[in-house]
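Narrative summary of target 7.
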Amino acid sequence: MMFERILSEIQKADTIIIHRHNRPDGDALGSQLGMKHIILENFPGKTVYTVGDDARFFSFMTDSAMDEIPDSTYENALAIILDTASRPLISDDRYALAPRSVRMDHHIFCEKIADEEVVDTSFESCCGLVTQFAVESGLKINPIAARSLYTGMVTDSGRFRYDGTSARTFHLASVLMEAGIDTNELFRNLYADDFASKQLKAKFILKIQFSPDNVAYIYTDKEEFDSLGVDVFTVSRAMTNTMADIKGVDIWVNFTETEKGVLCEIRSNRYNINPIAVKYGGGGHAKASGATVPDRATAMAMLADLGAIKGE
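Modeled conformation, tokenized:
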């Protein structure tokens, strides 16, 4: 069984601390909360913590407030790392204090992080991978776990539109729905925008530009970012797909200047853009990747490299 060693580690641990990547999306938070409540449901004697930065947009999810724990909690704990391809992306680097660690991920492999790992890029989401873990291990999925995992499955598959979506995706989604999900309530929380958000999206649509190779891009400099009064996730990742579904555009990228550099969110509906993200120190999936570069000149070099993909 693919998950046998991870299940064994969970069974042996009395304290479990679950990590995921920083600036969490629905899949990161969904897999984290889903795993927590699968463990609590099936191993009621265990203590389970979730740690990391704030859930922000996904704070509507049940139990999304992260735990604040001292370093000493890690002394005899198992650290579980989910939906994360490389060490710098892990939210709360104290996972390294734990004597044992496991990882489950669906991104393209970058490096070994944990003692035991299951990395499978054939899954549309880490939530799908966690659901498969529960099914294969014969573990019960309670309603909180099901809602969390379904949220991540929906968001990371682009509402079941992206290439990773398969017959297995729909089978696992069916398993989660049978556990008890009100999809109407979930989608109201997930896709409802206030008027200010609609205005922001309209503003970003008007910012769209095109490279000579017809790569769509938006560039937000630090001064403009600061003037918007919203968090970096809202400007960077959340605005990326304002460029999706433009006829004739196969690659798009959202650049956001921050104090830590220029965040680059890269997407495509046709080409493997991951090697470009890796070239610039990032990673992710074949058609959805990201990186952080030092300045605008480097961001424009990335843009040219993305355009060159189309001529290969």
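The two ends are 40 Å apart (CA to CA).
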